Amino acid sequence: MGFIIGAILGSFINSAVWRVYTKKFSCTDRSRCVTCLEVLSWYDNIPIFSFLRLRGGCGLCQEKIPFDYLLVEIITGFLGVFLVYVNGVHVSGISPLFFRDMVIVLCLVFIFVYDAKYMEILDRVTVLPAILLVIVSLIFGWQSLFVMGIGAIVGGGFFLIQYMVSHGRWVGGGDIRMGVFMGVVLGWPNILFGLLLSYVIGAIFGMWLLVHKKKQLTSSVPFGTFLAIGTMVALYYGDTVVRWYISLLV
Predict the structure, then answer these.
(1) How is residue 55 annotated by DSSP?
(2) Residues 170 and 48 in one domain
(3) Residues 174 and 210 reside in one and the same domain
(4) Which one of 9, 18, 62, 109 is least enclosed by Cβ atoms within 10 Å?
(5) Cβ proximity of 44 and 18 under 8 Å
(6) Is residue 102 included in any domain, yes or no?
(7) pLDDT digits (tens, 9 = 90+) for 116-128
(8) Is 8 exposed, middle or buried (0-12, 13-18, 19+ CB in 10 A)?
(9) Would you call 85 helix, strand, or coil by DSSP?
(10) Which alpha helices (H) appear in 127-172, and where do they start and end?
(11) Could you give the C-alpha distances from 211 to 33, 117, 169, 207, in angstroms and in order?
(12) How many domains does the chain have?
């Protein structure tokens, strides 16, 4: 069940990324080929299966479908399995926490894909989800306003300082709002681990690009992708890492 749900959400993310960027069709419009723009039949729009059946090409114009579409659906499929496992859905059934995590993961994957493709972090997947998450978290008692508030101040402030010092050359406004979103999701002090992990992943990836001469030192990289990964890992393992670090200091 988890894999099917995740794959469907991955297909939705692929469609949403293209629709938002092109601004050509509303979210109520039927799915279309990104090349010929013809409406796809329902059987050509089944996650993973349709890509494999059509051998990675459009059934109408025969143009190749970007391979990253398949990767997103497979990855979100496994993320769905992971969410079912960590939330104990297979034992206790679907809970509000499962829906919360599903929405967070949906936003993070969208941020990852959109930033990787277009080098931009959209406000609609950071600001609005952060506000809604604060409200819902207070209703269900998942995190206190203090924990989320400090996390948002640290996350957003971290990038705001860089923005002011560099006059917008190091980071953009999207990074600031992403920092706020991370702070609300992770809270204090897990936001510290999320930021640290994001920079470590970014540094490793940057070194790989330099070694393989894919980028130069002055080249821009989609840092939102690393922030999305860091947030995802810290959401589930931040408490463990923070407790381990504190135990070393005591």
Answers:
(1) T
(2) no
(3) yes
(4) 62
(5) no
(6) no
(7) 999 999 999 999 9
(8) middle
(9) helix
(10) 127-140, 145-166
(11) 37, 22, 24, 6
(12) 2
